[in-house]
Amino acid sequence: MKKLSAILIIPAIIALIIISCSEEEEINVPIDSAPDIAITSPADGEYFMFGDTVHFAGTATDNEDGALPDSVMVWTSDQDSALGTGRAFTRTDLSVNTHQIELKATDSSGKSGTDQVSITVEFYGFVPVPGGTFDIGYVGVYEPVEQLDVEPFQISELEVPYILWEQIRSWAVSRGYIFINDGQAGTNLPPFTDQYHPVTEISWVDCVVWCNALSEKSGLTPVYYYAGSSHIPANACRIAPVTGDSCEVEPTADGYRLPTEAEWEYAARYIDGSSFDPGDQHSGYSVNSSLSSCAWYDNNSGGQTHQGGELVANALGLYDMSGNVWEWCWDEYHQNPGSPAPVFQLGPAAGNPRIIRGGSYQLPQPYCRTSFRGTAQHTIANFDLGFRLCRND
Ligand SMILES: [Ca+2]
Ligand SMILES: [Ca+2]
Q1: Is residue 349 over pLDDT 90?
Q2: What distance in angstroms lies between residue 26's CA and the mean position of ligand 1's atoms?
Q3: pTM
Q4: Domain covering 126-392, topology
Q5: Gap from CA of 19 to ligand 2 centroid (Å)
């Protein structure tokens, strides 16, 4: 009898379990799932140069809703905030920085999904310049000619464009930096439609403060410090030293800075390290002997600045070294550019005048000669005077 009841009871229990399971399945309310988000462009870890076109593309699909509409696909950067909406668009104005890019989309039930990538936007290409020895100055242009050693360094392909200047300046002002001048886009007056023209109307002291701001924003060590201070971040020059303050260079810093006069002429005339363009010609003479092909000067500029990089580059790949806008150098003017050495450490901020190089769009050929030395008071700003960046190698 016991055996029989066991035979009957066990199948009954199994049947109950099966029934209860199927009942549970029938009363299950389907769970609304969050959308699946995928960024297909840019790629995680991708690098861009400032001003490059960045293509944003992604997908957002949802189990219940299907493909989600563009309007709910929201792209943001932790550096630049809102970037745009939709499955595909482009931007050319991302700030110089490492960006955490996020695509977020929300379905009709309010559930959200995200995907992230990290990209880096760097300033225009920097050209590594090998160290070496050269003769600064040129007979008939600037004498005496003096042999100088130049350490390896990096220099920007282009003069600093207004769009980058303004991006960094406004960031810096919001953090307590003080500039004398706001700068403008070349010869272009407000509202500055030609934002890729070189920045002009900025003084030497503005450049020093701006270089430190770009270094700080880029996570690099600032180069310029208030004179006599210890070279720690708190003492980096953030306020244009207009009241007699002065600043000095930290030569080991990896941040952005002005070229020295020696670096500028070395890079302007460099061919291969053993030969150099003649100092009585324009930068890039060995690449193209026509001044009009290499430089914006009074005969071809139409009386205005031009966007960087439109003419022939010199042997190092540097554009507009001669012409377009004058370029501030670090050095205080001394009668002989090679003395006292080392050039890189010459001169307090208050020292006058400072060196400018390369001539400009409104001047004739003699000013475009690579050994020609110009000077300007350190607080002067002019509509044909800008700068380009250097870094220690
Ligand atoms: Ca859903
Ligand atoms: Ca120039």
Answers
A1: no
A2: 21
A3: 0.75
A4: paralog of FGE (formylglycine-generating enzyme) (3.90.1580)
A5: 85
